[in-house]
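#structure-requests
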Amino acid sequence: MKNKYLLFFSSIIFNIFIFGCSSSKLIYQIDPDFSRVAPALENKEIIYVEVIDNRTEGTHNATLTSITADMSDSKALKTKLTQFLKDKQFRMINRVLLADLGLEIRIIDLKLILDSGVFKSKITGSSELEIIIHKKSERWSKTFKVSRSQDVANPVNEFDATGIMNQMLSKQFNNIFSDRELINFISK
């Protein structure tokens, strides 16, 4: 009788452990803070925005889990940035040659990786974006990198992944649109 109870409780604990640690597919939603963008684009009324995904498939450790977006990263970034600029009364245009300023973002690297542990997990993000500014016949570009890691209590959820991704991208866009070279090129 004692062995039946021990076997019963062992199987319950084992199931809790297995099902508690198994993760469903994690996603994130891109929605960074673009507050530095509008002041950097001062005196430019008509803006062209393009976001291109230039990532190449790489290999990563099989014990780590990639966290994916709810929609393509390039589409999400373009949608959020375009909406932000419209909300700030900029006019958007689909042709870079007709714009006062063209803003092109090339995604070289953008990822979140989950390293699962028993009681806590670690989410590590990295982002490398090339920013290209078009002003009529002139062009300026620069690459910006940022990374972020954070330990998160299990179970890891969408809010954890979304928060880490957006904190990382917000910091990156803050750095980009505070860059003195970029501001000087736009204002000349």
